[in-house]
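[09:14] KT: can someone run the structure on this one? pasting the chain below
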Amino acid sequence: MSKGSKNRKLFIMRHGKANWEMDVDDLKRPLTERGVDEAKNIGHWLGNHGYRPDIIFTSNATRALTTSGYVAEGVGTSRIKQDARIYNASVEQLLVVLADIPTDIKRPMIVGHNPGFEDLLLRLANVGEHFYKGDKLMTTGTVAVLNMPDDWQQLNQQCGELVDVIRGGSL
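[09:31] RB: done, structure tokens below
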């Protein structure tokens, strides 16, 4: 059985670099200038390479919402939906979020946080060493593009195929 479908994609994106020097509630932590650049770069890259998400599901944290807005602008969509379950979610919680995606959505993007996003990627796909940057996989402002099976509710171990990992800071 082949892994994933070229017609069904999942974009997993970690938010851009956050400002940890500010004394604010974690949910309200903004992006740094570098984080804004990472998000804009990813949005433009995705748009220029024909990767247009149907909808962006985002954590309710300010840094994820802002990242989602810049990516949406770059790919030419306005469909962004906040989902508080994504904030600091475990891989198990993220699988529940994905299972709730309607079957007619073929190319969703989720924007959120580590370590859950890296754990999710490692669960869904075989990740070769060449996708890492040093010992890091999902650095800030990074998006993973996966081919996925037809049913969001049947996401078994290694069911997807990792197509690419793009780092906004490297574009």
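[09:33] KT: thanks! Residues 33-48 form the longest helix (16 residues).
[09:34] RB: yep, looked fine to me
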